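User: Round two. Same drill as before: sequence, then structure, for each protein.

Assistant: Same drill it is. First protein:
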Amino acid sequence: MTVDQQFTTLYEKLQNLLRQHNRLERENDKLREEIEEWKGKEAAALSKADELQQQISILKMAAGQMNDKDKKTFERKLNKYIKEIDKTIAYLSQ
């Protein structure tokens, strides 16, 4: 094999590697975007699950079906929300 043929072969291999590298970079970018999309969906699902859990707690409390542990947990959450609302009102009235 001559030097020119070796350079040609090497050049072709480099071109193939560059094409493969570019393809893999595009694929990697696409996968990163998908990951971010799934993270957003996961956060939305967790938020919705938390919201539904709160609604269940409220309904149980309204129906009088809470045990003592659930009542205390509910009251702590309710007190936390009340404190946050009070802080917000105090901040807004400044």
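Second protein:
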Amino acid sequence: MPKLKTRKAAAKRFRPTGSGKKIIRRKAFKNHLLEHKSSEQKHRRLSNLALVHEADEKNVRLMLPYM
């Protein structure tokens, strides 16, 4: 059976947790247009990593076959 290809865009955006059972992602809305956003929103709400929702996890795992 041939090797499976990894979707490189997904590989840059997602990584597994320490146990490997769940997938971590970065939160959105923190790239540009930050002047009008409050520092609370930027620092407290958007700085932490988030888990990929279980409904989307299957699709992410299909894009990353060796994760």
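Residues 54-63 form the longest helix (10 residues).

User: Perfect.
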